[in-house]
């Protein structure tokens, strides 16, 4: 049993004040909650590391608990002078780092990270990095205990066309640092492990690894959101995720255009696109700005509101080109909501035969499938209640299974 645990919280701090956490952010928060619980029940001290504009901050257990509260919506303070100077172009990050400074047990310039950790953190404390931040030789080399890294996917290396131009090179450097220093790499699926270790082998070292599927915390559906343009008496399908090229929203817009050529306006389903706008997707943004009929775009829904929208939908549409795990389809399955997914190995591994799998670029197949669902009349949305899952909810591994799979390998 280690003397303490050290969790990197840089990712969550960078997201404070920006709306509901998604994807990797939620995984980091789940780890934070688990280690907070471990400190409370077993007395195993928790520390947290945050990279700031001018160095690093170290938090103890109370500080980490305060960050968890901030991640769930507690108010951020006004930015102090250091925050305003260090994050001139990012006022929210300035406020978040001001909060961290007030909570910090210690702070140090970047070159003295090892000294700060040696002074304040027990020796041989394992370091957990589950957010892809701070994966550098300098940071990983400053750790005196086991280095445990969760690699969510290697999409920037496998599909550089779906990322910002500078990301593949930056991400490649991160993976090289993990290859050289990590004592344990955590993968959410066997498919992700295979892809990641192919890159590690090219980099010269494949670290020890464990496959630990992510847990799923699906909130109970809350109050149905009042979305401008959505008629809750008519059927709708839901697409969840950042509007970026990899998520393939262009295909869904093509599908809705073709459906409009064969269905009367009063028979058309609605498409709700729930997600913030991302990058390198100007053509899709222009199409959305033109307000295509029967398409509703919404961002920053709360988890309960999103769950209510999903629960009463005719299904989740997820034609992604690539995923490391894919939380929205898993959450749909946990609610018993039909899922129509691109035919990716990772979805077969996690969800088996629960979804309907469709070719990622075959508009015709998606049109025919959605038309058949509508013709079947299997779901009847009502304005005053949830219709429930059309399928039996799929039993999926919980977070305890994930944590146990990882922590039994930690010294």
From TrEMBL:
Recorded GO MF terms: glycosyltransferase activity
Write down the InterPro entries for this protein, in alphabetical order: Glyco_trans_1
Residues crossing the lipid bilayer are: none
Domain Glycosyl transferase family, residue spans: 231-380
Q: Which PANTHER family match?
A: BLL6006 PROTEIN, GLYCOSYLTRANSFERASE WBBK-RELATED
Q: What is this protein called?
A: Capsular polysaccharide glycosyltransferase biosynthesis protein
Q: Which organism is it from?
A: Gemmobacter lanyuensis
Tell me the classification of the organism that encodes this protein.
Answer: Bacteria, Pseudomonadati, Pseudomonadota, Alphaproteobacteria, Rhodobacterales
């Amino acid at each position: 049993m280690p003397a303490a645990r050290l969790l990197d919280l840089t990712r969550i701090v960078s997201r404070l004040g920006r709306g509901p956490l998604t994807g990797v952010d939620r995984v980091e928060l789940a780890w934070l909650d688990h280690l907070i619980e471990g400190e409370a029940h077993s007395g195993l001290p928790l520390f947290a590391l945050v990279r700031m504009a001018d160095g690093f901050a170290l938090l103890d257990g109370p500080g980490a608990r305060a960050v968890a509260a901030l991640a769930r919506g507690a108010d951020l303070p006004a930015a102090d002078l250091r925050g305003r100077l260090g994050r001139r172009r990012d006022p929210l990050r300035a406020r978040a780092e001001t909060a961290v400074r007030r909570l910090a047990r210690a702070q140090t310039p970047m070159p003295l990270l090892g000294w700060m950790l040696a002074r304040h953190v027990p020796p041989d404390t394992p370091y957990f990095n589950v957010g892809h931040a701070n994966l550098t030789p300098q940071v990983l080399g400053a750790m005196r205990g086991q280095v445990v890294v969760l690699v969510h996917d290697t999409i920037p290396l496998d599909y550089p066309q779906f990322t910002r131009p500078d990301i593949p090179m930056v991400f490649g450097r991160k993976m090289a640092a993990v290859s050289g220093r990590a004592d344990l790499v955590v993968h959410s699926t066997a498919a992700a492990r295979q892809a990641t270790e192919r890159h590690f082998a090219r980099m010269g070292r494949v670290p020890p690894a464990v496959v630990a599927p992510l847990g799923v915390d699906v909130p109970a559906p809350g109050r149905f959101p009042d979305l401008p343009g959505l008629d809750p008496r008519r059927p709708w399908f839901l697409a969840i995720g950042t509007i970026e090229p990899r998520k393939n929203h262009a295909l869904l817009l093509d599908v809705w255009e073709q459906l409009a050529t064969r269905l009367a306006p009063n028979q058309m389903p609605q498409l709700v696109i729930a997600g913030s706008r991302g990058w390198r997707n100007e053509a899709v943004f222009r199409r959305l700005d033109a307000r295509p009929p029967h398409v509703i775009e919404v961002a920053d829904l709360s988890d309960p509101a999103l769950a209510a929208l999903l629960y009463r939908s005719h299904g989740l549409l997820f034609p992604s080109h690539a995923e490391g795990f894919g939380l929205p389809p898993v959450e749909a399955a946990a609610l018993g909501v039909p899922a129509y997914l691109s035919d990716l190995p990772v979805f077969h591994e996690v969800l088996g035969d629960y979804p309907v799998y469709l070719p990622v670029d075959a508009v015709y197949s998606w049109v025919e499938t959605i038309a058949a669902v509508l013709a079947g009349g299997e779901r009847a949305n009502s304005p005053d209640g949830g219709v429930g899952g059309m399928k039996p909810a799929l039993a999926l591994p919980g977070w305890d299974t994930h944590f146990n799979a990882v922590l039994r390998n930690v010294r």
